[in-house]
Amino acid sequence: MTRFEPNLRIPGPTSLPPSVKEAGGRQMINHRGPEFRALLERLQAGMKPYFGTTGEIAILSCAGTGGLEAAIVNTLSPGDRVLGVSIGAFGDRFARIAEAYGASVDRVSAEWGWSAAPDEVRERLGMGEYRAVLLTHNETSTGVMNPIQELAAAIRQAAPEALILVDTVSSLGAVPFDMDGWGIDVVATASQKAWMAAPGLAMVAASERARAAMRTARMPRFYFDLPKHFEAMASGETPWTPAIAVAFQVDEGIRLMNAEGQAAVFARHLACAAATQTGLEALGFELFAEPTHRSKTVTAAWIPDGLDWKAFNGEIKRRDLVLAGGQGKLTGKVFRVGHLGSVTVGEILEAIKTIEAVSLEWGRHVEAGAAVAAAERAAAGAALQPA
Length: 387
Ligand SMILES: *Cc1c(COP(=O)(O)O)cnc(C)c1O
Prior knowledge:
Layout: E1 7-9, H1 18-24, H2 34-51, E2 57-61, H3 64-75, E3 81-86, H4 89-100, E4 104-109, H5 118-125, E5 132-136, E6 138-139, E7 144-145, H6 148-158, E8 163-167, H7 179-182, E9 186-190, E10 201-206, H8 208-214, H9 226-234, H10 244-260, H11 262-282, E11 298-302, H12 309-318, E12 321-325, E13 334-338, H13 345-361, H14 370-383
Parallel strand pairs: 1-12, 3-4, 3-5, 5-8, 8-9
Antiparallel strand pairs: 2-10, 6-7, 9-10, 11-13, 12-13
Helix pairs in contact: 1-10, 2-10, 5-6, 11-13, 11-14, 13-14
């Protein structure tokens, strides 16, 4: 019997394809045996092309925030000067982790809704000696995607030795990334975002420069000690008992992604983003992010003045569409639509249709059918663009 499931349009956890759900229900295996070793090898091989690295990827059993913590504590020492480039709630969190472990953090903060400006970062780096720069690839709280390649180039120019640590939790697997080519030092992502699996694994890759920094970094660490993880991985293991069920799921998620093809996965995300953004605008919602760096994985829109969002969203939920609210200072001001992982254009059109139906019921000024048609056209147009 198939049970009805709501259209879960939040930016993680994302909904699981049927075969991924099944993978999570499999019998346990010995995590010190050949089956797990083979599984780890498949995860490595499958993820590397999405990270854009030939280096090893540590598999940690924790939320995405654990991956960010690992990036910090393994490469830095208390007192290190760090530039935290923040464009929203997750950029702030990354900086706070560094502060919690004793780094001396200066911040460059963009107005929420905007991406970070490479010139501003370059200028700030010229004003002091920085050990590391913290960046967010996709700021999930505002729906903005930073131009990481440009930012990394600016950082390399102004501070050739600085470590570049990037939060790619809600972007890797959905959009192109080239860690090695762009000169990024540490990259962290998590299983419940574009990887179509349940929460429980963080995946962290480190450059040669970052691996060297780990030998002298003095921040305290034990569970997240990356050299221990890389060492264990050489023999096909993790240092501690891993979240095996989630590893089964990520393995199946990557199998599905490979069957679809990397270019097709990226194109699908572009199409879903275009459909969401065009559809919401056609429904009279103003998007939160400035147009040039809108995210391909999550869209934030202003709650219109005078709209009782709680009641409006209650009706949306009753129709089995689950949207995300605002985070931090945007609580009650914006709502968000996730379009990453196992999302289809059909699911986005369904979501737009539901929001339209509730809008009509609420007496909002929308033309029946127009938003879905516009969204469908936008998706078709986006699919023709190269990723
Ligand atoms: C989801 C997310 C995180 C944190 O993930 P948790 O698994 O909740 O710890 C960090 N950064 C970004 C950009 C995210 O979207």
